[in-house]
Design goal:
Layout (H helix, E strand, L loop, with lengths): L4 H25 L9 H7 L13 H8 L14 H13 L8 H6 L16 H6 L5 H5 L25
Helix pairs in contact: 3-4
This protein binds heme C (2 copies).
Length: 164
Amino acid sequence: MNIPVRPLVSASLILAVSAFVLTGAVADGGHYFPPVADKTTADECGSCHLAFPPSMLPAASWRKLMGQLDQHFGDDASVDAASADIITRYLTANAGDSSGLRFSGKLLRDLAPGAAPLRITDLPRWKREHRKIRAAEWADPKVKSKANCAACHEGAARGYFDDD
Ligand code: HEC
Ligand code: HEC
């Protein structure tokens, strides 16, 4: 009775290993920001907009954002205290200045030390990367907001922000 079990187990092991290798390979060559992997954060921070990758802002920014969720860009994005605690810990532990990731380092490079912007779209480097985009493109009804990353970055939800 062991026979049907064994191949199943090894097949799923092989799948797991190759998925890991693939992710690593693509991450190395692309502009990859690991997407939110924490369920509470994905649920609470992904309902109105993309759950922004934690590595796109420094920990101080996440702390500030989490400290004023009742006044969140004109919305009330409050969560209960237990969820806020989980989310704050997840975002700060994986923030751009704690993860050591290559591309978040680049995105935060021109940020003044100690600065805690509330928006990714306010980062000097983000502005520079998007400087060639014309006003008409931002105003396109399919885009509407600079924060609507997925309108232009098809792979945003998977963590990819190169320009295909
Ligand atoms: C009730 C809706 C709502 C929820 C829930 C919500 N947000 Fe937002 N968020 C907004 C709005 C509205 C904006 C402004 C979007 C714009 O400028 O187009 C925004 C913008 C942001 C931005 C700045 C985007 C930029 O311009 O770079 C960050 C960062 C952000 N939210 C983080 C979070 C986090 C973290 C959570 C979870 C704790 C969260 N949001 C939950 C509505 C929400
Ligand atoms: C109107 C379309 C549009 C929106 C909306 C947009 N981007 Fe971009 N983004 C671009 C284009 C086009 C480029 C490529 C610029 C270049 O290569 O010259 C780019 C480049 C980037 C890069 C640099 C990647 C590289 O190849 O160097 C990052 C990171 C990025 N965007 C993140 C974001 C994030 C995060 C958001 C949302 C907060 C966002 N973008 C919203 C169009 C957009």
